[in-house]
Amino acid sequence: MSAHHEELQEIENAKHLWRNGGKWLFALLVAAALGYLGNVIYKGQVKDKNEKAAALASQVQGDATKLTELQQKFSQTAAAGQASLETAKSLFDAGKLDEAATQYRWVLANQKDALFQASAAKNLAVVLLQQKKFDDALTVLNTPVDESFAPIINETKGDVLTAQGKTKEAVAAYKLALDKLSEDSPNRELLQLKMAQL
Q: pTM of the entire structure?
């Protein structure tokens, strides 16, 4: 009889626990399990997407159709950003400045990685400088970038301002770049030389 009594007592305890917050604890445990499962699935999908993007990126190598496919299907991936920057550089080297500018603009619009943003802004400004579109170049160089990339952006601003004949402003931009560089940076000498020539 005592075993039956203990069973009834356990059932009553379980009912009491359920009525006094047990269902919320159960719901919390279910929500946590679902959240964990969702996170695992999401990470798996991201990994799969990145792998597919990397495979497609390896096929780009100057193929505009493949690059467009990569940009459309995997616009947020690092592989798309890297392939776009590499393609833009090849186009620039081949003298196809408008096409290079288009690729750099795509990176600025679609990639949020600090390195990609800074690289695209700097290189697009160089393209615009080559095209003598100085005001457009300076506008691009006002793109917010991570503080660690400020020296290269300010140096490029100095180059654009020098090309415009704005010596005082160019010196100020070079000085800003110099001030943000570490003492052991190899770029310090080049900046100092650019300033000395003005």
A: 0.71
Distance of CA 62 to the CA centre of its chain: 22
User: In sequence order, what are the residues at sequence separation of 6 or more whose Cβ sits closer than 8 angstroms to the Cβ of residue 194?
Assistant: 155, 158, 159, 162, 174
Domain membership of residue 67 as a residue range: 25-132
Kindly state whether residues 128 and 150 are assigned to the same domain.
no
d(CA 1, CA 10): 14
Which tokens hold the place of 94?
């081949």
Residues 106 and 166 in one domain: no
At residue 181, φ and ψ (nearest 5 deg) are -85, 150
Closest CA to 177 of 162, 187, 166: 187
> Do both 118 and 178 map to the same domain?
no
Fill in the DSSP letter of residue 147.
G
- pLDDT (average), residues 13-22: 62
CA–CA separation, 138 vs 133, rounded Å?
9
